[in-house]
Design brief:
- With 417 residues, the protein is an alpha/beta fold.
- It has helices at 6-20, 25-32, 80-97, 117-131, 150-163, 187-206, 222-233, 256-266, 280-283, 323-331, 339-342, 345-358, 365-390, 394-413; strands at 36-42, 54-62, 68-69, 72-74, 102-108, 140-141, 214-218, 237-243, 246-249, 276-278, 290-293, 312-314, 335-337.
- A 7-stranded mixed sheet has the order 10-9-8-7-11-12-13, with helices on both faces. Strands 1, 2, 3, 4, 5 and 6 form a 6-stranded mixed sheet that branches.
- Strand 4 (72-74), helix 3 and strand 5 form a beta-alpha-beta unit.
- The radius of gyration is 20 Å and the shape is globular.
- It binds nicotinamide-adenine-dinucleotide.
- Residues 71, 144-147, 191, 218-224, 242-244, 280, 294-296, 316-318, 343, 346 line the site of nicotinamide-adenine-dinucleotide.
Amino acid sequence: MKSNDLLATAIYNFQHSAKRLCLSAKLYDNMISPKEKIECCINPILSDGRHKKITTYVVRHNDTLGPAKGGIRMAESVTLDDINGLAMEMTWKTALIGVPFGGGKAGIACDPNGLNADDKEIIIRSFTRGLMRHIGPEIYVPAPDMGTNEKDMGHLKDCLSYSSGASITRGCFVTGKPVILGGIIGRREATGNGVAYTTAAACKKCGIDLTGAKVAVQGFGNVGSVAAGMLAKMGAVVIAVSDITGAVYDSQGLDIDRLYAHAAAAGGVKGFDRGSVLAPAELLELPCDILVPAAAQSQINESNAGRVKAKIIAEGANAPTTPQADEILGSKHCFVIPDILCNAGGVFVSYLEYTQETQREQMTLDEVQRRLIDRMQSKFEHVYQYAQNKKISMRQAAMDIAVQTVADGLVYRGFHP
Ligand code: NAD
């Protein structure tokens, strides 16, 4: 298995779940392969007049429970296999968190770092035009993921409505939009806040006092920065944060608001005037109570898992832990909150955005937050009890609940076209 192989991790986790659940061959075959894999080449003309050839992808892994849902990843190295693996994860995540969506994902193989705002908008619009027949409230509903943000979702919505000669789209074609364009208040923070809520629940089960607990966070984008801020608000001490530019460390705790302001101005955490500089790889191995990987996949793998000292790992990122690392962490009794549970707050609030837009309603921040906390806590408890009863890990329990839910949906739908 390649060290960063998202698809192999997704397939491994599914196959082991299928075995535990004694899934029939019919169900297994139906669930392992994506329903649709699209690769589309776009050639936008950038602001300096250059043509840039970019490969883009949309994968609808499974839509048994509803339209495919999942973010758009923009990264130079992203592949169709990566998007397939991430789409498969979304199938289990939406089933586990209990929203009527299937699993999908999109990719734009282009480095967003260093792109000026005009070029990013041109690329997002070109992607949207190239793939618009695969996007829709009953087909695939995108959202932000690594390398994309709410502004990009605003451009996507505008491109779709402009193309149909209207000021809005008919129904919800994209979530994670700016609030002023029909986005929902609290969506941008939902994934990171959900990470913090499940972490607090895990601390209770592990007998760790969150007040004063030491936390290290890898990745300081949408998920990592919000999770760090919320955990600090809950009383934890965030001792280390890294991003693609570097890592900073302070055993007494970093001021997350100040670090956020610095990163926004400087383009990353590097150069923060408090604490000391840390080698980014060291962050994962720091003595701490809680580690939050909130960046790329496969960061915790067989080469470093043995040296991870955290008692709780809260997977803000998708597939940050390889199956080999999972075994090593399990043997050390490390409590892993699996990605499909830990970072599902984003897709849950995306569902609220979808219903809000469909019904032309508006929800208050209080309502969104209350529903998010309730859902994250109740799903955490469900997975925890299932894991205890079956004597399996949290990841195995989350996967088994999700795979069984999709299997039940398939049986109710029937297998004939
Ligand atoms: P983002 O683009 O906003 O931020 C990514 C962050 O990770 C940046 O700070 C970047 O510098 C950093 N980073 C990238 N590679 C790194 C490395 N090797 N070491 C340290 N830092 C690194 O992306 P995001 O939306 O915060 O997504 C982060 C992760 O969370 C991804 O795995 C994504 O799939 C997952 N996720 C995101 C959402 C969401 O709502 N945005 C929902 C569920 C899961």
